Amino acid sequence: MVLTMLLRLTTDVCPMIAKDLLETNEEAPVAMRLVPAPAWAGPKEDDPGKGDGKGGTETGIITKTRPKTKRPNLYRVLLLNDDYTPMEFVILVLQDVFNKSREEAVQIMLHVHQKGVGECGVYPYEVAETKVTRVMDTARKNQHPLQCVMEKQ
Ligand code: TYC
Asked: Which residues of 53-77 are buried (b: 16+ CB within 10 A; e: fewer)?
């Protein structure tokens, strides 16, 4: 995916950059180039006609194209200890909802049992939310007080 940014620039606002962009218009096809302003950009109020290219009234659109590399916000999904949920139930939830091996699930369950809280995984918002819901739903259906929460990393 690409993000295209448009910015109106006049040579009287920033003559050095505008001149540079005009001169390198063909050589800089991707990074940055000054192209004529399209009709939808509207006329510049104090610019009665076309600029002469010698500075002062030249108007154009800078387009900059770059890869959009926004990373998703991540959330930790945490399991909380209680005195009543059977250990075996917690192990099965960890295997089923968080795709843990039996060995990993036992380790996480014991960690939560001993420390009070433990991490089951780190996910983008909607994945984390779905996992919390699945844990809470299955706990409620089985009448266990098991609690699962998410927190921004
Ligand atoms: N403490 C529970 C017990 O002794 C076991 C347990 C572990 C419960 C982890 C919840 O998130 C939990 N039966």
From this structure: eeeebbbbbbbeeeeeeeeeeebeb
